[in-house]
């Protein structure tokens, strides 16, 4: 009986050390609230600053995911300190429990977090970039710890898990710059004057209010003959990637006005290519 009483007393003495007290709970809540507010306020301020930074807009927003990681990692560290001073023994124990949690079904979440860290430091794309991944094309509006949010041309918001960067090819159309190449295709009748058509598309490109031309950002106009039509392709950089579609629409409209005036016609309807936005 004496042994049983000793065991009971030992178990009861462990309960206070296992169950966190009210002060610890309040401290954890405060740490989480402060971390959230820091991230939220910094995100809002940096986005406002970026909108006034002109061509350096994307350079400013690249700080946001790095800041999130630093704040969240610091929050985890301070939460651990609330319960115990994380020495080598405690860190080893925590690592073991964390590894077990990953093995029991949290591996996808962990893969997303690792993907977020990789994106933040290697920067395959940044907030403000136009990217294409997993069949989705659009502008990156946020890079979180678990997912990247992309706004598509039809204004849909798509969340792409960060681990997709390890599994899917990711194409960044502007590579962190505000200017971006836009491809504009004009299809004309094969009997039309290709030289005149190329000149017209060139003039529409270089006189657009959206175009950006420099020694490192040249434009070009190319001709490709097909059995039932000719394709005139213009390549030029838009001065702000957010004007991608306005640029393409304006150049196409102005080019066709002049093409029609010159008597250059599109190919017969049965021979018009079905996909006019091929890259």
From TrEMBL:
It is a multi-pass membrane protein. Keywords: Membrane, Transmembrane, Transmembrane helix. It is found in: Membrane. The chain crosses the membrane at residues 24-46, 58-80. It comes from the Archaea. GO terms for molecular function: mechanosensitive monoatomic ion channel activity. It holds the Pfam family MS_channel_2nd. One of its GO terms (cellular component) is membrane. The keyword Transmembrane applies. Residues 108-168 form the Mechanosensitive ion channel MscS domain. Its main location: membrane. PANTHER family: SMALL-CONDUCTANCE MECHANOSENSITIVE CHANNEL. Belongs to the MscS (TC 1.A.23) family. This is Mechanosensitive ion channel family protein. It comes from Methanogenium marinum. The lineage of its organism: Archaea, Methanobacteriati, Methanobacteriota, Stenosarchaea group, Methanomicrobia.
């Amino acid at each position: 009986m004496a042994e049983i009483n000793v065991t009971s007393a030992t178990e009861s003495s462990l309960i206070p050390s296992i169950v966190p007290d009210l002060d610890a709970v309040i401290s954890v809540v405060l740490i989480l609230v402060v971390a959230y507010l820091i991230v939220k306020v910094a995100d809002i301020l940096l986005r406002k600053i970026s909108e006034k930074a002109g061509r350096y807009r994307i350079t400013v927003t690249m700080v946001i995911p790095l800041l999130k990681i630093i704040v969240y990692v610091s929050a985890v560290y301070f939460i651990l300190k609330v319960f115990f001073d994380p020495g080598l023994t405690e860190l080893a124990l925590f690592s073991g429990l964390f590894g077990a949690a990953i093995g029991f079904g949290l591996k996808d979440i962990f893969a997303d977090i690792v993907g977020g860290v990789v994106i933040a430091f290697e920067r395959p794309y940044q907030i403000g970039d136009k990217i294409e991944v997993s069949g989705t094309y659009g502008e990156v509006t946020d890079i979180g710890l678990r997912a990247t949010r992309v706004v598509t041309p039809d204004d849909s918001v798509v969340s792409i898990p960060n681990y997709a960067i390890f599994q899917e090819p990711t194409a960044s159309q502007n590579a962190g710059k505000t200017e971006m190449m836009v491809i504009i295709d004009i299809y004309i009748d094969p009997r039309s004057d290709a030289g005149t058509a190329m000149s017209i598309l060139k003039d529409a490109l270089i006189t657009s209010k959206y175009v950006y031309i420099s020694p490192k950002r040249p434009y070009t106009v190319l001709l490709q003959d097909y059995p039932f039509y000719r394709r005139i392709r213009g390549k030029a950089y838009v001065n702000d990637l957010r004007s991608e579609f306005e640029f393409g629409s304006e150049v196409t409209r102005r080019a066709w006005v002049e093409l029609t005036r010159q008597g250059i016609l599109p190919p017969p309807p049965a021979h018009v290519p079905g996909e006019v936005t091929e890259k």
